[in-house]
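seq/struct pair 1
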Amino acid sequence: MNLKEQLKAAVISLKDNDSNFEPLALEIFQYQSDKNPIYKAFLENLGVDRTKVNRLEKIPCLPISFFKSHDVITDNVEIQHTFESSGTTGSINSKHHIADLPFYEFLSLKSFEKLYGPIIDYHILALLPNYLERDSSSLVYMVKGFIYNSFSQDSGFYLDEIGKLIYQLKNLLENSKRKILLLGVTFALLDLAEGEYPLSFLEKYKDRLIIMETGGMKGRRKELLREEVHAILKEGLHSDSIHSEYGMTELLSQAYSTGEGFFSSSPSMRVLLREVNDPFTYMPSFGVGKPTTTRKTGGINVIDLANIDSCSFIETQDLGSYSLDYKQFKVLGRFDNSDVRGCNLMAL
């Protein structure tokens, strides 16, 4: 087993709040700082001596914009597939080159099942209109894998067929014992909740129906706070809580929220918050710095150990805060002048 295979095996074996996360992150940092030309050049321009990086918070994070301007690849891998962000008209899209699709498929399913249980217990109805128009969406690829592994012939994708979706949803709730995962891009779920079709039947089955928004207005609607979106969806879809998925083209790991907007990361992912005006200084967090009872807003840096073949250390343009116990995070919006993205974000 070569080094890369050893690292991937170690990532797969990670558990929640694993003490091995930091030493594994440092090992992956040493590997990528040597084998990833873009990341290596980035560190050299910062004057970073990689041999002196010995703590998680000392690892510099690559600005996410590099995925637009460069091929971020470690160790000259053979590319199997390329995920591409949706972006907006006239924008430059991010590209994430994938060298090990089975590795991604395994981890994404493991992440979901850790929180929600076996995928075979679900029918999956995916309302992802703008994503389905592209064959390079990481979200569509992930959901296709979920549907395949659910062994449900009643699962499927829906473009703009709201009536057909509602018919199938009602049929499955009334005639199947499986739980239903209704997963959709935010603007499409809002269209469903505020549409002309009667949805009062959902009230009876809300214990078996999980409604999950994946973010994204894509210029179709006015940007809203997540709390506003969830209030509309709760009322229109007769649900007590709205779940969320936090992921993006440049990441292979995901985080999920079961309500109230606080996300729990998968074992292969950790979120650190940097000071808004100093990208190289971290705010206090669980295990980093001196804890504080004051909830502050910071820029989100993601350590995604699944990104072994690209870069595991990403400085996003998202703004977030921690829960009071520092074990979860909330996405609050985006830095000014950053691109509107298709992931789970609402404007401040």
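seq/struct pair 2
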Amino acid sequence: MLLHNNLNSEEKMEKNEIMDRLAAGTLSRRNLLKGLSAAGLGVAMMPYMPGRANAASQATYFTWEGYEVPELHGDYIKKHGAGPEASIFADEGEAFQKIRAGFTPDVAHPCSYNTGLWRDAGILQPIDTNRLSHWGNVVSSLKTIEGTQKDGKQWFVPFDWGNTSVLYRTDLVDIKEESWGLLWDERYKGRLATFAGANETVPYAAVYAGLDPWNMSDADLAKVKKLLEKQRPLIRFYADDETTIEQALASGEIVAATTWNGSATRLKGEGLPVKYMNPKEGIMTWVCGLVLIKGAANPDKAYDLIDAMLSPEAGKFMITDYGYGHSNAKSFDAAGDEAVEAAGLSRDVEGFLKKGVFSKEFKNRDAVLKMFEEVKAGL
């Protein structure tokens, strides 16, 4: 999932710092451009960066914004002297298409429900878990998520987990019970937001309609489309990242939006009156993780990167700073019960995930994606 970066500090970066972070792979493309602008540099000043990842001296990592930070790659940096070279995607559909078109990172970061799709497209290679020193401490139930194992092989290493729900301003929203229906409340027209990706938006609309989001018939899909079309005029914007949502909630531009656990953790930490909803229809739950890309140029460093991200130290950072769960059971000991509770997480990972509507792949994926794009385009 997408994570928040401190844009204010990055906007003030000096030229040397920008180039150092770019070389270390710890600066996202979007925030790099902000930093270049603040430093009086243009994109033309950037060194040439090839479209394919094969020329990289470090492992290349294709991920959501925020997961490129050095706190998640500590052991890798200690071993190789620098972080992985990160490339950022806004959603998994974009990432999938880019890899199919020839971009070849070493490690990518999809969610579990996309593992089968990516594997069947021939862009993954199986993972030898014997090469991962922390694999034995990974929560058992996360190792066998549907679609992540096939033919006796592991194709996905679980890393982070959490919820998708509605975060709302308690001082600006008046509701009697928590429901996904808030995102269709006419009282807040123009002050609501949701994610721009079908994987994040279509499922909760289906759940709100009383449908199984992963196994929709044509009639079900038509019902969800009508519901999303009804929502569209109420939405101020469709967001590609958490940062946009958090800033709009903080300013009062919007009063409620779909987002992930981390947004609630951060905005509460800033003293804002927000609440992360547990909708009566069911909260969405997910697990994302790491995969090896077929034809990757740096397989040994890829394993070092995955192992570093499975460490308890990386997990502690995920829990305490980002408010997401981590796959290593020892991470909870490192973070402590107070931090786990503050993040709204649980040591009982399987129980936590079962309480919600667990994210899977759409049965009719292409039809779902087409429908949602039509809704956003107003067709």
